[in-house]
Write a structure and sequence with these properties.
Strand content: under 5%
Helix content: 25-40%
Largest sheet: none
Distance between the termini: 101 Å
Structural class: mainly alpha
Oligomer: single chain
Shape: elongated
Number of strands: 0
Number of helices: 3
Length: about 80
């Protein structure tokens, strides 16, 4: 005697919803913070995290404002 046949597996279809991006305008406070952190030689990745923006967006804004994000320490020349 054979028991009842197992039910066929139910196929479900998951719908992948694309994540929508909401662009935020740069406020005067954001720009002030960016300039301040850049002046302190804070790395771009850390500035981006603080401003809750991507590193790319942060670098692009710095470029348009002519703000250097070079966070490497400057080498001092030896006095002769």
């Amino acid at each position: 005697m054979v028991g009842p046949a197992p039910a066929a597996p139910v196929q479900t279809r998951e719908v992948m919803v694309a994540k929508t991006t909401k662009r935020r305008e740069w406020t005067a406070e954001d720009v002030r913070e960016l300039k301040s952190l850049a002046k302190q030689k804070t790395p771009a990745s850390r500035i981006a995290r603080k401003l809750k923006r991507t590193e790319g967006a942060t670098r692009q804004k710095a470029l348009t404002l002519s703000v250097s994000l070079n966070s490497r320490p400057t080498k001092r020349k030896k006095a002769k």
